[in-house]
Amino acid sequence: MMEDISEIINQLGIDRRIRLEDIPSIDLYMDQVTQLFENTYRPSKRRDEEKVLTKTMINNYAKGKLLFPIQNKKYSREHIMLIQLIYQLKGGLSINDVRIVLANLNDKMEKSDIELDPIYQHYSDLQDRQVEVFHVAVQSLYQDVQSELADMQGEHGGYLEQLLLVTALIQQSNMYRRLAEQIVDQMGERHV
């Protein structure tokens, strides 16, 4: 199954994201923003009918103060970067937690107290390294699962391998999410 797991990882599209160089230097209308996200993430969707980003989502982000104010119905490079961050964060955090994480950054953006390009580049560089770490970690986890099942042979071996791998992956996901939530709680306490 290791070949299968490597193939599955490759199909996930976890290395897909809007990079700094992909963001136009001109402001975009909402349709252009949704198209940019759709074009970037289409290959990594679980199901074809899923929407990557909709107008409603963007409007909700703006209304929920996840983005600093939009000017003339156009989205700047900085808005695109923030929407990318929201897109990633909402996969593991509640919208309220995302708001807490981005509140300070949005305040600074609105006051022009910070330049987002270098921060976004660091984010992108970290994501690249995390993809590499993920490949190695999943292979190691898979080997652990095989070691656990070494004494079990027979017709249920494939299913049990998948069962243990899924539960172990979810356990890791839960641990990372809980750690992120604890950090968000600390951020919320400081921002109040």
Q: Give the overall silhouette.
A: elongated
What is the domain total for the residues? 1
- Percent of residues in helices comes to 55-70%
- Number of E strands: 2
Please state roughly what percent of the residues sit in beta strands, choosing from under 5%, 5-15%, 15-25%, 25-35%, 35-45% or over 45%: under 5%
Give the helices and strands as they follow along the chain. HEHHEHHHH
Q: Using the CA coordinates, give the radius of gyration.
A: 20 Å
Query: What is the spatial order of strands in the main beta sheet?
Result: 1-2
Name the average pLDDT: 91
Q: How many helical elements?
A: 7
N-C termini distance: 49 Å
Uncertain stretches of 5 or more adjacent residues? none
Helix and strand composition category: mainly alpha
How is the biggest beta sheet arranged? 2 strands, antiparallel
Give structural attributes.
two-stranded antiparallel ribbon, 192 residues, DUF1836, mainly alpha, single chain
In terms of topology, how is this protein built?
Layout: H1 2-12, E1 28-29, H2 30-41, H3 55-63, E2 74-75, H4 77-89, H5 95-110, H6 116-148, H7 157-191
Antiparallel strand pairs: 1-2
Helix pairs in contact: 1-6, 5-7, 6-7
Pfam families: DUF1836 (PF08876)
